[in-house]
Amino acid sequence: MRHRSLWIALSLLACLGPGAAHAQSAGHAWRTSATPTEQALDATAFQGAGEVLAQQLTDVESAVVVLRGRVVYSYYRDGDADRLRDTQSASKSALSALVGTAIAQGRIASVDQRVTELVPEWAPLNSDPRAATITLRHLLTLTPGFSQADTPRTRAGTAAPLPPQEAWARPLAAEPGQVFAYDNSVTPLVVAVLEKTTGMPLADYARQQLVGPLGFAEPRYQGSIVHLRTLDMAKLGQLYLQRGQWDGKPLVPAAYVDASVQAQSAGGPPAGLHYGQLWWVVPGKAPRATFMASGWGGQLIWVYPPLDLVVATTSTVSAESGQRGQALQWIRQQAFAAAQRRVAAEPN
Question: Is the pLDDT reported for residue 322 higher than 60?
């Protein structure tokens, strides 16, 4: 029921029109400064938002709201804007961006390239002939067809990932491309493909392609999970809102970005939404769908193109936090309405 409620809540947001907000296309570049007038309008629009987080939605540890390419609101329960925070599976979406850069550089031919062409040493590990047909697209869309143990952690999307060789050797339960299954063991497979095709550790490639160009603080890597500043989570959302452009330069190919945040399958648990290429996609009527990165417990990058709006949140990493869904509640009830008020306050 919780997953169904999440789907309904996000779908309602996706269908909402901008109203008086006079929404524009995603043409606003990242801007770090604000005039005193802008700061005053920001404060008025978001008045009370911090009190709700501080007093009621206590699972939420941090939040950054970016509107038309500028940070208009931020909240840090611990007061530490520079702290690297556990993003859980929201880091999958950053991994998707790195695949896009590798394709742009010709290190990978396309998402339709077979995985065993990219990592030939895996071919002998799986005797099922269907394994040889698995493409990078299947990994990115979580449709490779591998069998998973049916456990509460698997169903909740929190099962620990297997090492890549073990992940590839698993039996197949479905034809590649036919069935969506939230499989955390896909992450080390994609990491291994990137390291093989780029010839460098993931952290080095990420530093070269994303961390440096976007001005991230140096991330901390813990297995398959990346720790980032909340601001840098928002920057990733802004990069995708801008269809892979940053400071007028293409970091990720626009066509790849577009495909990543369009529904490639009907998706399913744990978010209960459609799925693109390591991004969740919210069904709706807008020309560009709302999309999000989501990590267990309330680690979110929520992007609403009709308002040029990006919201990043981190929360307590726990099953209880995930069940309460306070980060999404705040986005839905406070951040979204405040962003509408803020844009409506702009002089004509």
Answer: yes
* C-alpha to C-alpha distance for 301 and 292, rounded to whole angstroms: 5
**Amino acid occupying residue 328:** L
Q: Look at 177 and 17; give whichever has higher pLDDT.
A: 177
What residues pair up with 221 in beta bridges, in sequence order? Answer: 226
pLDDT at 29: 77
Q: Which of 64-73, 86-95, 277-286, 323-332 has the lowest mean pLDDT?
A: 277-286
Share of the chain above pLDDT 90, in %: 83
Per-residue pLDDT, 224? 77
The closest of 74, 63, 17 to 343, measured between CA atoms, is 17
CB 273 within 8 A of CB 288: no
Cα gap 304→281, rounded to integer Å: 11
Q: Report the C-alpha gap between 100 and 274 in whole angstroms.
A: 20
> What pTM did the predictor assign?
0.92
What is the rounded distance in angstroms from the CA atom of residue 138 to the CA atom of residue 328?
28
Angle in degrees, 0-180, between the axes of helices 36-45 and 336-344, rounded to the nearest 10: 140
For 57, 207, 309, 321, 337, the CA distances from 66, given in Å and listed in that order, are 20, 23, 6, 24, 14
